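Renewal narrative, Specific Aim 1. Our central claim is that a sequence can be written position by position from structural information alone. The example that follows is taken directly from our test logs and has not been curated for this report. It begins with the structure tokens describing the chain, in the order in which they were read.
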């Protein structure tokens, strides 16, 4: 008979975001730190759809009144989704990333961080086997120019201005590094959550509600500090992460790929005007993917298009207008799914789960 944590690992691996097995079993160590055995067993009866206690109890062969307090507690711990609407409680299974892990921002321990850092490369490489990803890259505002064929859903400011409910939460990646004594000092409050997601964060005491104006200010400060905007991969995103290449698990691990540009969802790439470039190296220093190097013969910047993810940070630091963003070829462009449900349905099909 399989251990309950192994069963839970398989259950989570059958979600779109996955939870791959490793030889070391580090994924099981993580689950044991997050879930009690009873919670792990109950989680096996949850699905990726909001359901009542009665429906879950029937699947788990349990008394509804007996499991309801545990479900509520699991919701508070960020292990599942708990929604109370008009006095009616419903619960749903959570992906591990993006999902369970991000909700642990206030529950981190050094042991848990150590295990997650060991596991993250396996998890991210597994996720990037799929054509559809959970996050995408959009250019920073200062890099947007009139020549770009850019849609509203590809502009951070437009995404923010379309939101009625915005919450800012601490970045779990920078929180991890700070706890381990390796913090980068960049802004901590840098995860923007929208709509229903914001209400769930708020109900758990994570983050604070902010105005559109403050959200825009946070993005501006983040860009000054070299942070890359990564919204969820949908035309109607539910969040935007402002990520650094020193702490962000996603960027750090993508950077290890030989050609990051071929695996990220981005429709733009940097281009250098050699006649204007002075070889100051400012763009080379800020690039999160090491996509820019100096051409030693011409003494100008050169962009490795296999590594450029189109974030536009290089444009923000060039004082000579020598670098700009260009559209990728139409054959290379990717239109994001309409919403997050479609995103996860696409991933589910690509993984062969349906």
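The sequence written for that structure reads:
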């Amino acid at each position: 008979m399989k251990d309950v944590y192994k069963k839970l690992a398989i259950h989570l691996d059958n979600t779109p975001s996955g939870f791959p097995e490793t030889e070391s079993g580090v994924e099981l160590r993580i689950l044991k730190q997050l879930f009690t055995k009873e919670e792990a067993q109950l989680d096996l009866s949850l699905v990726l759809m909001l359901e009542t206690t009665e429906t879950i109890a029937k699947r788990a062969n349990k008394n509804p009144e007996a499991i309801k307090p545990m479900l509520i507690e699991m919701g508070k711990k960020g292990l599942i989704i708990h929604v109370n609407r008009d006095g009616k409680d419903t619960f749903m299974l959570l992906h591990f990333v993006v999902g369970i892990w991000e909700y642990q921002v206030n529950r981190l321990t050094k042991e848990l961080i150590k295990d997650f850092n060991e596991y993250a490369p396996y998890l991210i490489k597994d996720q990037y086997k799929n054509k559809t990803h959970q996050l995408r890259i959009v250019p920073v505002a200062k890099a947007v120019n009139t020549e770009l064929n850019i849609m509203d859903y590809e502009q951070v400011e437009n995404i923010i201005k379309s939101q009625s409910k915005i919450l800012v939460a601490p970045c779990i990646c920078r929180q991890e590094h700070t706890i381990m004594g390796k913090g980068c000092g960049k802004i901590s409050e840098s995860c923007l959550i929208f709509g229903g997601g914001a209400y769930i964060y708020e109900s758990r005491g994570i983050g604070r509600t902010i105005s559109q104006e403050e959200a825009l200010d946070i993005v501006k400060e983040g860009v000054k500090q070299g942070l890359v905007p990564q919204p969820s991969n949908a035309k109607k995103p539910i969040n935007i992460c402002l990520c650094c290449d020193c702490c962000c698990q996603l960027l750090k691990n993508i950077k290890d790929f030989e050609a990051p540009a071929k695996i990220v969802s981005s429709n733009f790439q940097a281009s250098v005007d050699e006649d204007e470039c002075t070889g100051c190296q400012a763009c080379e220093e800020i690039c999160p993917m090491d996509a820019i190097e100096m051409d030693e013969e011409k003494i100008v910047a050169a962009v490795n298009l296999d590594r450029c993810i189109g974030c536009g940070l290089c444009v923000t630091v060039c004082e000579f207008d020598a670098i700009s963003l260009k559209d990728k070829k139409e054959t290379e462009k990717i239109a994001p799914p309409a919403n997050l449900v479609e995103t996860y349905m696409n991933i589910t099909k690509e993984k062969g789960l349906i």
